[in-house]
Amino acid sequence: MDILIYGTINSVALALYALGFAMVYGVSRLPNFAHGSLYVLSGFVTWGFLNSLGLNYLLSIILAMIATAVIGALIYQFVLIRVRGMEISEIIASYAIGLAILEGLRWGGFKGMTYTLPPFIEGSITIADISVDYQRLLVVGIGGAVVVCLWLFTRYTRIGLALKGMAQDERAAMMLGIDSDLMAVVAMGFGSMLAALAAILLLPLGNIVVESGYNVLILAISVCIVGGLGSWIGAILAAFLIGFAQILTAVYLGSHYQMVVALLAIIVTLIIKPSGLFGRQKELEERV
Amino acid sequence: MTIEPMLKVHEITKTFGGIIALNRVSFDVHEGEILGIIGPNGSGKTTVVNCITGFIKASSGNVFFRGKDITGKAPHKIADMGITRTFQVMRPFYTLPAYKNLVIPLFSPRARRTGGWRGGGKLGDRNTVSIDILEEIGFERDSFVPYKMTSSLPTGYLKRLELARCLSLKPDLIICDEIFSGLSMSEIASMVPLIERLQMDGITLIMIEHRLRELFRVANRIMVLNFGEKLIEGTSDEIMADERVKEAYFGSENVEEVMDHA
Amino acid sequence: MNLTTQRRRERIDRGIKIRTDGIYAMMSWRELSYLSAPRLLLIFGMLSLPLVMPGMYWQRVITITCIYALLALSFDFLAHFVGLVCLGGAFFVGIGGYMAAILNTSFGLPPLLTIPLATVIGAGVCTLLLLPCLPLRGVYFAIVSLMYPLFSARVIEAFDIFGGTDGILGIDGFSNHWIEQYFVIGATLLFLFGTRRLVNMDIGLVFRGVKDNDQAIKASGMDITRIKAMAVFIASAMGCLSGALLVHIYMWSGISQFALDFSILPIAATVIGGGGTLVGPIIGCLILVPISELLRDFGTLRIVFYSIILVGFIVFKSEGIMVYGQRKYHQFERWTKV
After folding, report:
1. N or C: which end of chain C has fewer CB within 10 A?
2. Nearest 5 degrees, angle CA A201-CA A207-CA A211?
3. Inside any domain, residue B39
4. Do B177 and B73 belong together in one domain?
5. pTM
6. CATH architecture, domain defined by C43-337
7. Where are the alpha helices (DSSP H) in chain A?
8. Collapsing DSSP states into helix, strand and coil, what is residue C244?
9. Pairing of strands C252-253, C168-169
10. Range of the domain at B199
11. A287: which chain B residues are within 8 Å (Cβ-Cβ)?
12. Which residues in C lie closer than 8 A to residue A279 (C-beta atoms)?
């Protein structure tokens, strides 16, 4: 029973990490290797607003999310857009930016275990003999709400539909009058905001450390590859698969094998079905 | 007793999403003959070639080569068996001399087994063999043409280079994808004897063409494709007499018949 | 009505370059020196570096530069000649390093044996492990190759094998630090000129075909995955060599070999130095590593520093120093009226 609960919590967490990455890749085909760094950055920004500026928690959160979204969009607008289409340059450039942000934060003195964000609600509740923090329940709840909101957004709003159109077929979208460059910037902004949201929900469960930037990136990529790069449903499903696999491993083998599971999942996916669960793209060399 | 055809294509179907590119196409190719495949644009000619040579996996159907089922095999394995093809869009090494382009095919296991075109057994010095093959193809040996930069060669020579690439593998079957396209009349006039010579040397050929007059000079049989279906198969006279072929190329005065196909 | 005359830039090969392109290059001393001067400059320059460097610290820097240079060379070879962008160079370093460490400590082999053995066996191991990823398209391969070193570090940490987080200690060093220096520099130069030779030989054309003309390769009956595997073997050999050299220099082998440094700096060096030239990455390392050492006081700021430079170069001027230099050397530009 506790596997079920912790598995769900872990899976939702993974899905939250991965959604931002999946969105950016789905819309603009950019593998955003700076994703993890935006996650950590938003955590520190929230901390800054909260502690150094003494703002209200809710206000800090909202400001941090907006700030991260803007930073992400700016990065795309001024740097990444120039290498749009050159896949390898995109990867290297976004990786380098992510690296610069993370190591810059490390140099700026943001190291050690002292940076934390307070949870929204203290205390815990007992479900079926297991004590679960309210914060963790909130994660699941808000995570679910986010997915529903995203679904509604891409179905009923103009921008959402534009993003969805671009994800399906960029040329067709352009022919319909959708500005693909602008949409790519918007997607990056949204993806960054999702990263910030994940950070805000999940960082209160632990500390804000720079290392988690790399971990989040690895987990997000693992989930997206297993689910199929570019598929949002696939990412969610894969998050659950890997999430439960991780918890099972932690229970039966030991908790330090969790990362290994994620990376193993990538290799297994590549060998069996490289395009992932719902991937629509040709990941193998196929040229006529 | 009927001789087993060298290549047997059986009910090949290929769909790309909702588009039916090939619809149960079947035909045979006999050893030593030249089969022409014609049809208007979009009729599926190149798709058939891609399915036979393994560059595309057919949705259903089979391809048999000398009795063996080669459906769905990887392209390099099919080439290793002796089926080679030319490409409509050529990608030679433009910054290298012409004869260096044959280095890649001469490196293949098949070329090393058979010694390359006209080779007896083991492959000799690659450069020499390369120049020999180019001479066969029509590059004058004593001139500096084989040594010229590939980027400076006209289309006629580049097409021959494609054929040379196929010949390096000492193939049994060559599939030529629009090899006459982009050539001037004189270039075609000098290609035709080359094709005839290849046939005399025992190579079977499938030629996809738009230039019908030149094709009819060399081909033994013609097959017509239209909208992914085989319309008719026969000699060039039989083909030209058929109403449906004329309709496929020139359209019909009868609107209903045209709408049937759309 | 007055039309302004427009001008455009025209680039023409220098006379001496055209003359030296063909077989008649050996006609005069001037032409010979035109061709060989840059190469000789590089060789003698690098060989004399240990002699001019003030003190042990800087000599160590030269050695480290060469180690990064080998990695950058392998990246350039794979990326610009075979079309495989391998972002996980650190994987090769780690495997090679650990292999040498184990051969030395558990089997007691001297460095002279461990280094070649680690290079070859390590390359085999790396190629085998990368085998499932070889058929993948560019982006996918890049992403997955990035994961490999991270994966390995965590596996070692999790299973606590090969010394776990402490690493393997007590590895023999080179007997004499001059041998150490020249061995490393020699290896670097050897592989540099060896790889240059390789890509111009016939087998090199097959590798380049994977990048430029893969339909010809497939249609000629050769298995692309096997060719890629061969290329990865060569590149990983260079990486494993640098790893093996590293552990013998520092006399220690640990997880840090899988660190980002070894992945990102070779890429930065290649981009700055000029990809596709094989010598550009070496130049890039000669520039970046000393600067990185100078910035060592600033801690991880140096990673920030070369990340930003990397981004700058990739986005704004992806030509690279060597490519720019070659162009200037071989061609001259002038403005002509249109």
Report:
1. N
2. 100
3. yes
4. yes
5. 0.84
6. Orthogonal Bundle (1.10)
7. 2-28, 35-47, 57-78, 87-107, 134-156, 158-168, 170-175, 180-202, 211-227, 232-252, 258-272
8. helix
9. antiparallel
10. 7-82+172-261
11. 55
12. none
Task: Look at the alpha carbons of B74, B79, B80, B82 in this order and tell me if their dihedral is positive or negative.
Answer: positive
pLDDT in tens, C286-319: 888 888 887 777 667 777 887 888 888 877 766 7
For residue range A124-154, what is the model confidence (pLDDT) as tens digits?
666 666 677 777 777 888 888 888 888 888 7
Mean of pLDDT over chain B: 84
Nearest to C164 by CA among A112, A111, A256: A256
Q: Which residues of A touch C268 (CB under 8 A)?
A: 96
As beta bridge partners, residue C332 has C12
Is the pLDDT at B229 greater than 90? The verdict is no
Higher pLDDT, A94 or C324: A94
> What is the C-alpha to C-alpha distance for residues C69 and C73, in angstroms, rounded to an integer?
6
Band the pLDDT of B128: cuts 50, 70, 90. Answer: confident
Chain B residue closest in CA terms to C221: B76
Please report the pLDDT score of residue B1 as a whole number: 47
Count other Cβ atoms within 10 Å, centred on residue B201. 12
- Put simply, whether A280 touches C (Cβ < 8 Å) is no
| B250, B186: one domain | yes
Give the 3-state secondary structure of chain B: CCCCCCEEEEEEEEEECCEEEEEEEEEEECCCCEEEEECCCCCCHHHHHHHHHCCCCCCEEEEEECCEECCCCCHHHHHHHCEEECCCCCCCCCCCEHHHHHHHHHHCHHHHHHCCCCCCCCCCCHHHHHHHHHHHHCCCCCCCHHHCEHHHCCHHHHHHHHHHHHHCCCCCEEEEECCCCCCCHHHHHHHHHHHHHHHHCCCEEEEECCCHHHHHHHCCEEEEEECCEEEEEECHHHHHHCHHHHHHHHCCCCHHHHHHHC
Q: Among B162, B190, B215, where does a domain finish?
A: B162
Domain boundary among the residues B162, B181, B202 is at B162
User: What's the pLDDT band for C134 if we cut at 50, 70, 90?
Assistant: confident
Q: Is residue B73 part of a domain?
A: yes
ipTM: 0.80
pLDDT value at residue A285: 42
A93: pLDDT confidence band, cut at 50, 70 and 90? confident
Closest CA to B245 of B260, B225, B262, B229: B225
Question: Is B1 part of any domain?
Answer: no
How distant is the Cα of A230 from the closest Cα of chain B, in angstroms?
A: 19
Whether residue B70 is found in the same domain as residue B103? no
Q: Are residues B13 and B56 in the same domain?
A: yes
What is the chain B residue with the closest CA to A280? B17
- As for how many domains chain B has, the answer is 2
CA A286 to chain centre: 30
Distance CA C18, CA A151 (A): 63
Query: Any idea where the domains of chain C sit in the sequence?
Result: 43-337
The answer to whether residues B176 and B253 belong to one domain is yes
Residues 185-224 of A with CB under 8 A from C: 214, 218, 221-222
Measured at the CA of C241, the angle between CA C240 and CA C242, to 5 degrees, comes to: 90
Residues of chain B positioned with their CB less than 8 A from the CB of A288 = 50, 55-56
Give percent of chain C above pLDDT 70: 91
Most B CBs within 10 Å, among C215, C220, C230, to test the B interface? C220
Same domain, yes or no: B247 and B176: yes
Closest Cβ–Cβ partner in C203, C208, C220 for B79: C220
How far apart, in whole angstroms, are the C-alpha atoms of residue A76 and residue A71? 9
Against chain B, the chains showing at least 3 CB pairs within 8 Å are A, C
Q: Give domain status of residue B23, yes or no.
A: yes
